[in-house]
């Protein structure tokens, strides 16, 4: 080996090793620590604990649009050039009821390719709008090879009837031209309210109303009600108005260049357009800024999606929206979820207007007197010309709608959300949010009574990162459907069985799960619930929830294990005792009896305890987790020596035992141990590299006389070593006392033992 040639003895190597280890640990933790809550449990793609079913169909892709039938048993899916009806009544994989194809016509495809769009990725009919029109028809729109088209689709027993070509209409303003452009549409009282790009270039956003008996209404392009880059993400009807959520470059902050801002716009349902002025245009279009920010921080200024909580019976319904930020710190952006009360939004639209000062080109608060009826309000009857003239230029509100941040998380970009409430055992309704990310994970977040969310779990849906395109909750099926490029996932709300103990079940604080003490199973809550079931959504405190019967009165209910794993070992062997890290929110430590495990004979690697079993080292080893202020044993081992058996701890009497085999290595066989550890070569390589770098630095230091002086100064601080070749390394020697090498050297041969100590 080249190491001796570098003049490093084993102890300096050890020092380096630990230094390196420290570096490795600090860098990995720094990478993992992000702002915001951590998901308590993470499931990687294909994890059996969170088995998901997946629908896909040969030749189909881009499952972008999802619609749930009224009875909740059928999921309609808009894919590329096709629309599908899926039966979702069974818990397994959604079953294809039927499918109709709706390709863009050949003429449109060739025109599209002629206009320099890709015939491989863009010149197709991507379904963008899929809404229930009446009891017998759906209404659908697609990009139709950069030439938007819409059609009615007949239904028969929730089967889709084929589309006849002569029923296909032009769909400009309802579907975007470009599949990459954002859009939104909602059907209210037989009329379609849509927000999207209205031209081939994608430079003319429009907010319009079509279908039904009322006149078609549009936003005015000339008056610049919308910035040319406006990008619509949601449309939500309320009693009198329809709200649109979008993002655009803000023009009112003249000190910023290209500042994005999130907006809510309103149009009245009873708007019929103007007579002389604003003909076929909205006369009630108003917009306001949406603010989602933590105090003192840069705002999350790019809205990605917004939803209204369905069947919100509360007096102040709220809209939930996900935001990302225009500004990026490091590799990934951060995201936030904010809640906006409808009352606040109404209040802002009832407040002051802004107006553009033509001379200074600045937006200022309008201070003129108000007219009645208020311009932009949904008053009945035709508006006066005066009011309409006012409306042309006063469409931006002065105040912002300020949201309540429920969740702020760095390192993820949320693209979509779905919300519902779940009734806990205590009768309270808890808000549950499902958040899809750009990398194909799903976060299940629960909002606590202090309006801050915690993440119950993260499910990585796809092995390769790709964005979640759409989410659709199917409450009666107890599942969430996720559309993406290759198909549709069915994700059950929860799998309570993954929480194997009462403690885990309570700590998870999943409103869908509760502990059933009789069958000792964490169960999905369903009506009727049993009185004896346990849940603690407020505190997540297992101390009372899991203490029942005589166990509750036992002197140590907290740390009493459910089962003890017995391990037989020979002295001087190395044992590997695994400990599954069930929760990312817990901190883990190992105990031996009532004390900590001595460092000299053990180390923790990847959660497992690597233990050199010395004489008298047997007994109870427990991996203790501390979460939410509560400590409990995750796994308990009774390590017994094969040569002399230990007396049983009386406190452990009555706990069931199970004999287990653990990975076991003879102590003297250091080389074999080293070979087994996959990380060993890695450490060695890194150590050698570091040694090389340090020697390089050393040479540079010694070349400069000043450096040599400095090196000497440092050595003096350490005390014993003469200045020379090893000088810079002496620092590590100071950090890492050579005691360990010496003590162990007395035992066996120095080489093996130093290796042993490194592993231990
Ligand atoms: C739920 O979790 C249990 C325990 O890990 C597992 O056996 C089961 O297959 C899971 N079920 C689903 C539907 O994910
Ligand atoms: C796209 O056009 C090219 C050349 O015009 C042609 O070779 C190719 O087959 C076309 N691809 C598809 C999917 O139509
Ligand atoms: C539903 O709408 C379609 C399309 O306008 C129409 O042909 C059909 O008669 C309507 N059905 C009912 C029940 O109103
Ligand atoms: C870490 O431990 C887990 C089980 O506790 C195991 O599945 C995983 O492979 C281990 N990782 C390494 C790098 O050894």
Summary tags:
760 residues, alpha+beta, Methylamine Dehydrogenase, Chain H, ligand-binding face of the semaphorins, domain 2, six-stranded mixed β-sheet, five-stranded mixed β-sheet, 44 strands, disordered N terminus, disordered C terminus, binds 2-acetamido-2-deoxy-beta-D-glucopyranose, differentiation, glycoprotein
What does it look like?
It is a single chain. By secondary structure, this protein is an alpha+beta fold. The chain has 5 domains: 59-166, no CATH class; 181-411, 7 Propeller (Methylamine Dehydrogenase, Chain H), CATH 2.130.10.10; 492-553, ligand-binding face of the semaphorins, domain 2, CATH 3.30.1680.10; 554-678, Sandwich (Immunoglobulin-like), CATH 2.60.40; 714-718 and 730-760, no CATH class. The protein is 18% helix and 35% strand. The chain contains 13 helices and 44 strands. A 6-stranded mixed β-sheet has the order 38-37-41-42-35-43, with no helix packed on it.
Nearest-integer average pLDDT:
80
Give the bound compounds: 2-acetamido-2-deoxy-beta-D-glucopyranose
Question: What is the terminal separation in angstroms?
Answer: 23 Å
Say what the CATH topology of the largest domain is: Methylamine Dehydrogenase, Chain H
What is the total number of structural domains?
5
Radius of gyration: 33 Å
Count of DSSP-assigned helices: 13
SS elements, strand count: 44
Write down the CATH class of the largest domain: Mainly Beta
Secondary-structure class: alpha+beta
3D shape: elongated
Annotated CATH architecture of the largest domain: 7 Propeller
The protein's oligomeric status is single chain
Major sheet: size, sense and barrel closure?
A: 6 strands, mixed
Please, what is the CATH homologous superfamily of the largest domain? YVTN repeat-like/Quinoprotein amine dehydrogenase
User: Any low-confidence stretches, pLDDT <50, length ≥5?
Assistant: 1-33, 549-557, 667-678, 705-760
Keywords: Developmental protein, Differentiation, Disulfide bond, Glycoprotein, Membrane, Neurogenesis, Signal, Transmembrane, Transmembrane helix
Subcellular location: Membrane
Organism: Galeopterus variegatus
Pfam family, one: PSI
